[in-house]
Amino acid sequence: MAFSRAVRAENYTVGWICALPIEMAAATAMLDDRYEPFPRPSHDHNIYTFGRIGSHNVVLACLPAGVPGTTSAAVVATRMLSTFTAIKFSLMVGVGGGVPNPVSDIRLGDVVISKPSGISGGVIQYDFGKTVQEGRFVQTGLLNKPPSVLLHAVASLETKCILEGVGLRVHLAEMPLKFPHLRTAANYPGAEHDRLFEAWYDHQSDDRTCASCDTGRLVTRPARNGIEPTIHYGLIASGNQVMRHGVTRERLRGELDVLCFEMEAAGLMDDFPCLVIRGICDYADSHKNKEWQPYAAAAAAACAKELLLTIPATEVVETKAFRGVEEG
């Protein structure tokens, strides 16, 4: 993918943050044009990728290698905002652990978009609170909701999906044309590799695969038609620890009604309100492995691109650059 002309820092209006290199690679592959880099201020240690999606100039950044979590995400976001002062809204895009439930038939390779519900802004920090009587854990404080321009875009995307279908396969098919090494990431791994075990059945060996696990403990689910990822909208649980315990996943699902778990968004929402988009790469249980990470990252990036394409350039111009907690 060749570089196009350089764009000045003040022309970038969309920030996009990833936690993993595979997420950053998928995001880069979604750019319609890639722009030349330019020198960063001495105080900014982020490494950026620059480009365009539709009518939007987008700046991408990835968390430092091996340093996930809410604090790391907050530092990267703060540096991005200090350098790119014209950013109007931002996205946190990557992979997460899905929470299967009777209402939302979440499968590996699907995408979850954070959406406000009740008093929650769309992201819940599930590991921040206090322990009260009888050992019950109670959350304290609420995280901000995304800017209104993004919530309007989510509504528009959801409407489009109802009328026309998702359409993410188009963006996924373009990835290997730009970057042949991403061919594997762009290809659906296959329903035969999407296995959901009973929540209380733990992984049975130190092997990364589930070759030793009892297939009789798999949850039976109806087959899907086609391989197009499904987009789900709802609450996302965020915390500083990897969720890999089926029983705990189910308990928090019942208490919080969340659709997926991830590790960065809670560090962003108060000072860097954004929309969170997560491709489902596992079921947040002890059977997790990295087989689905590349495709899940690609699906999330494709969803983010589709979302940006629903936002008119005029709406971005009318949106104030973010400098503090949005009122209202």
Features:
single chain; alpha/beta; Rossmann fold; five-stranded mixed barrel; two-stranded antiparallel ribbon; about 20% strand; globular; disordered C terminus
Q: Give the terminus-to-terminus CA distance.
A: 41 Å
**H/E element string?**
EEHEEEHEEEEEHHHEHEEHH
Name the overall outline.
globular
- Count of alpha/pi helices: 8
Report the sheet with the most strands, covering strand number, pairing sense and barrel closure.
Answer: 5 strands, mixed, barrel
Let me know the CATH homologous superfamily. Answer: Nucleoside phosphorylase domain
Level-2 CATH architecture: 3-Layer(aba) Sandwich
Radius of gyration: 19 Å
Structural notes for this entry:
The protein has a single domain (3-317), classed as Rossmann fold. The chain contains 8 helices and 13 strands. It has helices at residues 21-29, 70-83, 148-164, 168-178, 183-186, 246-256, 293-309, 313-317, and strands at residues 3-4, 14-18, 33-35, 48-53, 56-62, 89-98, 111-114, 123-125, 129-131, 137-139, 231-238, 258-262, 274-282. A hairpin with a 2-residue loop joins strand 4 (48-53) and strand 5 (56-62). Helix 1 crosses helix 7 and helix 4 (168-178) crosses helix 7 (293-309). The N and C termini lie far apart (41 Å).
